[in-house]
Structures are given as structure tokens and as C-alpha cells.
Amino acid sequence: MRRPDHQTTTCSAAAVLAPYLHEQAADFLRGLRLHQEHSTPTDAGGPGAEEATAALRQAARRISGALHTFRAALDPGWADHLRTELAWLSGTLAREHAYATRLGRLLEALHQLSGAALPAARTGALSAGGEERAALGVGAARAGALLERRLTLARTRAHSAALQALGSSRFHAVADAVALLASEVPLAPAAAGPASEVLHDPALRAEQRLLAAVAALPPDESAEPYNEARDAPWHQARLLLRLHRYAREVVHGAPDPVLTGAGHALDLHRDAAEAATAAASAARTPRIAPATAYALGVLHADQRHEVEAARAEFRGAWPYTAAVTAS
């Protein structure tokens, strides 16, 4: 376990936590200004708007994480309310990007599956003879068109919801609260205590929750690769890893590069699991052609294998020994 650095052992909790929240609030406001600059109809949805939305989401997540982990050092009512509002905002802004990413992932996978021989590692559930290959080639185009219609519609709705949210009184109240946070943090009396005590213990608990969640992850599922019911513990581990990373940024003043690989693997796991769900959902569309349904079934199997690959990558990247096994 890591101990706080020298700075946090000699400073008060307020002297460590308040500047961090000031910085994240300033990043949020910069993202908001950037988003307003790219909100014209000709630029809406372009790279500038996407960059601004990503900056807003990133700052919102970090503020929310600090409010959650270090709640004891803050005014609890204020912290709980702002954290709820930031979670609403971040979730609303994330949906459009998620649908776009999912569509790109699925179309690329369909192209690879229909345009080349299936990898040897995916024989069995994904093996295809000549007739199956022909059916996959025919069905892939139709499956891609179906997915594009469904996910583009979902993305359009998410974009409209995000624009509506950003123009709402609820969002303006959140922006006002973050603007105040950029200059003043509502602290609890406990924040006057040493950072080594007030901040270290909550950060340590965040780390312990992560370690417990990783240790409890389901074992290797190579014998049962399509059990979506077992995805939830992995998604929970991803969220706890994020909270641990943000807590470390507060206490140590910098991110932990050791956790970069593990976090990336869990992001891939989330993306593959959600893509598999989207393929399965599309396959349940009424009255689709058998070739289309077949291609979507192959696509679902492919993404579930990607889920397995991401889990293996996570186990290989996890920096703590004896915390996760593949048995």
C-alpha cells in the first residue's frame, strides 16, 4: 500500500483537497466555454464539440469522485447534491459518444469477420464453412445497415438530450455551483486536520474496496464465454478503479501510471460487452432475414470473445499480486 507523500503529511486536508477541486472546477468551466464556442449549427457535433464534451465529462467525473471519497472533509449536504447533479450531467453527455463508438466498433468487426478468414483462436463457435461464409458475407452488409439505423437513431436522440440538458435550468444550476467551487470549497471542520489522517484513510478505503472487488471477480470463463450475467462485477471493478485513481490524484498530486494498463483493459471490456449486447438486441429485430440474423449472431460471439480477451489483458496488467487469478 502506498503512503501519502511528504506534502500531504505536512499540510492540512483543506490545503490539499481545495486546490484539487479548484483545478477541476476550472477545467470544467474551460470545457464549458469551449463547448459554447463550438455550439453553432455548422460546428455542432464536430471535433471541437466532441473535445469540449469530453473535457466537461472528465472534470465532472473527477469532481464527483473527490466529493464521494472525501465526503467527510466536505459539507455533506452540498457534496451529495453536487455529486448527484454531476453524475446526471456526465451520464447524459456520455451517451452520444458511447453510441458512436459502439457503432464504429461493430461495423469494423463486421468488416473483418466478413472480409477475411476467421482467426484460428475463434474456431468452434465462430467456425464457418463455405455456405456459412457466404451467408455471413450476404448478411454482414444487411446487419451493418440495421446496426447503423438503430445506433444512429440512438445517437441522434442522445445528442438532442445532451443539447436539451445543456440548455436546462438544471444544468445552469450545476454550472453555477462549479463556478463557485472554482473559488470556494464548502469544507467541514475536519478538513482543518492533517491531510495524512483526513485524506489518507478514505483513499485507503477506496483502494481496499477496489482490491476486494478484483479479488472477487468471476474466474476464467473460457468454458462459458457467453454469460453476460457475469459482466456486472467487472463493470463495478472498473468504476472502483476510477475512484481509486482519482483519490490517488488528490493525495499524491499525480495519477498512478501503474494502473493505466488495467484501466484500459476494463474500458475495452465495457466497450466489448456493450457492443455484444447491441448485436444481440439487433438480432431480435422482428422479421429480419436469416442471413442478417446469422451475421449478428457471429458478431455477438466475436464481441464476447473480445470480452474474454479484455479480461485476460486486465489480469496480465493488474499490478497487485495474488489479487486476481484466472482459475
From TrEMBL:
<protein>
    <submittedName>
        <fullName>CHAD domain-containing protein</fullName>
    </submittedName>
</protein>
<dbReference type="InterPro" id="IPR038186">
    <property type="entry name" value="CHAD_dom_sf"/>
</dbReference>
<dbReference type="InterPro" id="IPR007899">
    <property type="entry name" value="CHAD_dom"/>
</dbReference>
<feature type="domain" description="CHAD">
    <location>
        <begin position="10"/>
        <end position="323"/>
    </location>
</feature>
<dbReference type="Pfam" id="PF05235">
    <property type="entry name" value="CHAD"/>
</dbReference>
